[in-house]
Structure formats: structure tokens, C-alpha cells
Amino acid sequence: MKMRNLALSVAVATAGLSSALVSTTAFAQAKEQFFPSLVYRTGAYAPNGVPFANGMADYMKLVNARGGINGVMTLLEECETGYATDRGVECYERLKGKNGGATVFQPLSTGITFALTEKAPIDKIPLITAGYGRSESADGGIFKWNFPLAGTYWVAADTIVQDIGKQVGGMDKLKGKKIALVYHDSPFGKEPIPLLQERAAMHGFTLSLLPVTHPGVEQKATWLQIRRDRPDYVINWGWGVMNSTLLKEAQATGYPRENIYGVWWAGAEPDVKDVGMGAKGYKSVMMQHGAELNSDVVKEVLSKVHGKGQGTGPKEEVGQVLYMRGLTAAMFAVEGVRAAQERFGKGKVVTGEQARWGYENLNLTQAKLDALGFKGVMRPISTSCKDHMGASWARIHTWDGSKFVWSSDWLQGDEQIINPMVKAAADKYAAEKKLTRRTPADCQS
Known about the structure:
By secondary structure, the chain is of the alpha/beta class. The protein is 46% helix and 14% strand.
């Protein structure tokens, strides 16, 4: 009888221990906020995709080193897309339900963004597309789940035209000028066309459209046409190897690099390092930040992440342009969750639907940004039900042969031009998809 009682006691104790372990495990899981990361560390665009992915991963580690999001730790899982839309959709389907459910997806591809825009409302998972994706998704009245935070391609194109206007002595001096858009023949590359056509009609410059086939290494015909037409300025809407190829072709053609402007995905170290002095004078618009080697957040990453032997990639890339783009994208993801916790419970894991509310009510004041280590790196970003972009600031930096240096004051996308275009395109999308504009009540939910 004693033996039976002893066995029962052990069984009860073991059951209690198992229960405690289950509870502890559940508690640990409940205190992790899951952030899927769609990356491309392989393929033609890997040289640009890798530093972005490393910046995102390192910032999530930094958040945990700081104590999490009010105590909630971040959990990051990468999925390799190779920049292919079908693989991106596969990654989304694979990760959306893992680890309690995805908080937010960042597609890092306009093509993948187009595909996921159809899925996000059904699955109630927000999309952050900072500096890419559908320009009209800035309209939160139609695109409830899309957040092109800090800038769209129409902002990029508009601020490039503004800076060209300054170079020629005023926007009125653009009349009669010739501008060529050399663009990646994909949804990404086609995004700026409506804005540039609008500006061309306004100012009387001639716009020529020169598509380049993926991945962008074959541009001989393009540059023969540029040599023939002699445009006053070239806008490079490239990504990956297309950018360095373009600069080498410009050099071979004798086209002045100081008359070439890149989008913010065409103005990073991998784009120019192999061209070196041959790219001197090349300009690129930047979505607020550039290379930020001396910023507070970079110093903190070096100390608390790389200094502990936990860095994701090489220490030397920390603070470079695309690394900062990934780091900033991670900061947006985290701060939206922090905003959601203010409403749904501080220190709690939030759902994707709750996180969406946070991204729609983001209020990154300068004081908040400075406290996060982004002093001098980012300007305030404030979203609302109508405005899912939150800021339209940009700057131009120029390659001096060895590094990028700031070469413009702050520029801002012209809302009088961009906002009507956004609304018209969003309304057209809504009509095609049979969507109705959100009600004031929906904006409160």
C-alpha cells in the first residue's frame, strides 16, 4: 500500500512538474512577438538583400537586449524568397500561422507586395512596405492593411524632379529638357511612371521610358539609345546588379554621372563600390537616412549585439545604407507593436490585427526617435486612418568616389500633386476589387 501511495505521489508530482513546464513554456511563448522576415540572401539581388536582412535581424536582437517591447521579446524567423514573387507567397503561407501568428510582413519586393495585398485583409496581417510597394497604398481609406511607411515611389520620383529643378535653376527651367527613366522591367520599376508623366505634363520636359530586363546586366541597347538621344538627365530605377551595370555603361558611354539620379534602392555601397571613381558625381534620393556610421543606434548595436558576439553579419557593414534600411524597417515593426500595447495591454503579445491598429496610430515624435538612437537619422512619422505613409521627407546624397555625402537640403513630396494621384489610383483599385472606402467607425476600430 505504501508503495502504491509512493507511486501515486510521484505520478502527481511528475504531472505537476509537467504541468508547470507546459505553463512555463506557454508563458515563454506568450511573451514572444513573432516577426517573419522575407529575405533574399541568395540569387541576383543578394548583395543588396543581405545587408537589409542583417540590419533587421540585428535590431530585433538589440530590442531584446534592451528588455524587449515592454518585456515582450522579439522572435524573428527568416524565409528565403530569392526576390521571386511565387517564393515570397510561399514564405507568407508557411509563416503566417507560426509561433502564435505573424505580427506583420515586410515583403521587401514590390511584386510580392502586389500579391500579398490580396491576402493580408483575409488573414488580418498588416504589411509594412517602407519605401516600396504600391504608391496608392498610402491611402488607408482603401488599403487598410498596407503601410508604405516613410515614403512611396511617387515621393521618391517627385523629390528627384524637384532636385533636378534646383540644378537647372528653377522648375520653370525644366521646359524643353529631356529626362530618361531607365527602369527595372517589373512592378517595382514601373511605379514612378505615372508621377513622372504628371510632372512632365506640368513642366514641359520630355520623358523617355527605357525598360531593362531582369536582372539588369544587359543594357547595351539602352545606352546606345541614350547616346543617340542625349537626355539632359537619367533617372535610374534599378536594384541589385542593374545599378553597377548602369554606372559602368554610363562611364563607357561618356555620359556624365553627375546627371544621373537613382531611386533609394539604387544608392547604396554595393551599387558603387565596384565602379569607384567611375561613379563619382552619381546622386541618389534617400528615404531620410543614408549611411549612419556615427548614429547612436549604430553605436548601441555595435556594443550590445556585435560586442557580445551576436551580430548577424560582418561588423564593417553596420551603419551602411542598406543595413540602416533593414534596421529602420525593424524599428517601424517594433514601434507599431509598442503603440498597439498602449491600447491593448502594455507588456502583452498583440495579434496582427491589433498590430495593424498600432501602425495606423504610429506617432514617432522626434523625442521618441532620438531616444531610440535615431537622432539625425529620421524625422517624425505620424500615421492615421487616411495616411498610412506618415512622412514624405527625402534627401539627396552623392558618391564622391569613396563614400556618399549629403548634397541637398531636406526635400518633401509635393502633396498637391501626389495626394490627388493617390486617391484616384486607390479609388480605381477599389472599383476593380469591389471595395468600399472605410467609414469613420472603421477608423476607430
